[in-house]
Write a structure and sequence with these properties.
By secondary structure, the chain is mainly α. The chain has 5 helices and no strands. The chain has one domain. Helix content is 68%, strand content 0%.
């Protein structure tokens, strides 16, 4: 099975769609690093009961909810 995407790079809308496709792996890598690696570095050295830690938990929970809402599985995008 094959898929071929064609863009008219003279058309501004197609050019934008092309850029989105070209950058999709970079975006996926940033999201993967954010969801899997940043949490530890942001919470390192804080007590679990600390308000800061709870705030980071809330941000990551929200991020994961947004990813789920938009049916984005970052691990699938990076394989």
């Amino acid at each position: 099975m094959k898929a071929k995407l064609t863009f008219d790079l003279n058309d501004p809308d197609d050019r934008l769609e092309h850029e989105r496709c070209v950058k999709s792996l970079d975006i996926a890598l940033v999201l993967w690093k954010l969801t899997h690696n940043s949490y530890c570095s942001l919470t390192n050295g804080y007590d679990e009961e600390d308000d800061y830690h709870k705030g980071v938990d809330a941000v990551y929970t929200h991020l994961k909810e947004l990813l789920y809402e938009h049916n984005i599985n970052i691990d699938k995008l990076i394989q």
